[in-house]
Specification:
The complex is a heterodimer of chains A (211) and B (207). In chain A, helix 3 runs parallel beside helix 7. In chain A, the strands form two sheets. In chain A, strands 1, 2, 3, 4, 5, 6, 8, 10 and 11 form a nine-stranded mixed beta sheet that branches. A two-stranded antiparallel ribbon of chain A has the order 7-9. Chain A is built from seven helices and eleven strands. With 211 residues, chain A is an alpha/beta fold. Chain B is mostly beta strands and 207 residues long. About 9% of the residues of chain B have low confidence. Classes of the chains: A alpha/beta (211), B mainly beta (207). Chains A and B meet through helix 1 and strand 1 of A and helix 1, strand 2, strand 3, strand 4 and strand 5 of B.
Chain lengths: 211, 207
């Protein structure tokens, strides 16, 4: 006869062993595996029709509702990587004063508050930290296609935007025609910047010039 | 998830307390379980087998050929897929390592039939059937971002195996068997978490 105490002890032991052995997905990810790379593009845009681009000389930091510009080593690493992969796709870097076809902004986004951060907010105030004057189109507004998704983040993100400056005068607005977003562990480590930007470009094969 | 984690233990205690009050022989089966996903579960969610499982039954011997009672268990399925590119919106593409994690806790009313019950044989075959609730937790991550869905749905089980008493007409011994588990599930485009589990363990009398 097996006593009740023994059965309870066996059940306890089984439960402890069992749940101790449950595979927790987050404990089985490397830093690289924890990251996701998301790209949005305006599918009506033919990226082959653009040739020149200019990139901002610093990044916009969006930190819990505040925004400012900064240039840390990690920021420079992202700017360098974007330059590298844009030029690999045939685009030519020119100065901002040379009427580039495309403008590129890099942004660091932090949300350390509780709750979630909507990327709608990020674009709602885009003109506040990337004033259209920066791109030589003072008085214009930005236009964000409605198809751009809403993300909820609790940690941070690096966002890269490509702006259509070529058609801004005829449209009276600056269309954001591509966005690359990186989230996860290690995105603010400068040694990871090149690989992250490469991944964003790798999944955007249409980013290439015909000019 | 925490509630699901302690549920088997709590229910075990309740069963023991209640069934000890019943007349007739009450026995317990405790078994290690290895499970293989089947059907949509295998093709859409997790194809890897799960070596992390246990089952436990508390059965009342109605006669030499039939036992009825309750079955409980736990099985943890997990699979991490290499980085790939997924369409996550109309114009949105996401590259990520996809992880799926599924835990299933069956809570079943069961019956076991012994074709050779009462006959002198060291190896006794059995056929089992059960129906009840399948409590599931389904977690999906893209990279480190994701969430869980907990649900409970209908579950049915059918299986067969053998048991070998430690001694002739003994009341305790080894068990080996396999079950097909139909676990109803319908969330986020995923349907049913059916699986086959192979189990090995012990049986012993409680009362």
């Amino acid at each position: 006869m097996i006593s009740k105490q023994l059965v309870v002890a066996v059940c306890t032991a089984c439960s402890a062993i069992l749940f101790g052995c449950t595979k927790e997905p987050l404990n089985n990810l490397t830093q690289e595996e924890s990251r996701i790379y998301t790209t949005n593009s305006d599918t009506t845009t033919n990226f082959g029709n653009y040739k020149t681009y200019s990139i901002s000389d610093s990044v916009a930091v969006l930190d819990n509702g505040q925004s400012y510009k900064e240039l840390k080593p990690v920021d420079q690493a992202y700017i360098d990587a974007v330059n590298k992969y844009m030029q690999q796709r045939g685009y030519v870097l020119v100065s901002k004063a040379s009427n580039p076809d495309l403008g590129i902004d890099v942004n660091r986004i932090y949300n350390t508050a509780t709750g979630y951060f909507s990327y709608d907010d990020y674009w709602d105030y885009y003109g506040g930290y990337w004033d259209p004057y920066y791109w030589g189109y003072g008085g214009y507004g930005y236009y964000i296609p409605t198809s751009y998704g809403i993300y909820q983040i609790t940690q941070g993100a690096v966002s890269i935007d490509i702006l259509d400056l070529k058609n801004a005068p005829s449209k009276n607005k600056i269309d954001i025609i591509w966005n690359g977003l990186a989230r996860g562990e290690g995105i603010f480590n400068e040694s990871n910047a090149d690989g992250i930007v490469k991944a964003l470009f790798d999944q955007s094969t249409y980013l290439s010039t015909n000019q | 998830m925490k509630i699901i984690s302690i549920l088997p233990f709590l229910i075990c205690i309740l069963f023991v307390s209640q069934l000890n009050a019943q007349k007739g022989e009450v026995k317990m089966n405790l078994q290690y379980s290895y499970a293989l996903p089947m059907g949509n579960f295998k093709s859409d969610v997790i194809s890897n087998g799960s070596p992390r499982g246990v089952t436990g039954d508390i059965l009342y011997n109605v006669n030499n050929k039939l036992s009825v009672g309750l079955g409980l268990g736990f099985q943890d399925f997990y699979q991490k897929y290499p980085r790939d590119v997924y369409n996550t919106g109309d114009k949105e593409v996401t590259s990520a390592v996809l992880s799926n994690s599924v835990q299933i806790i069956p809570l079943l009313a069961k019956a076991e039939f012994y074709p050779l019950g009462g006959k002198q044989s060291m190896v006794q075959p059995y056929i089992t059937a059960g129906a009840g609730l399948g409590i599931t937790s389904f977690t999906q991550y893209l990279g480190e971002f994701g969430g869980s869905n907990n649900s409970a749905g209908f579950m049915a089980q059918g299986g067969a195996g053998i048991f070998v008493p430690f001694k002739k007409f003994g009341h305790s011994g080894f068990r080996l068997g396999a079950n097909y588990n139909m676990v109803a599930y319908n969330k986020d485009g995923f349907k049913n978490l059916n699986n086959v589990n192979f189990q090995a363990g012990l049986f012993f009398p409680l009362h």
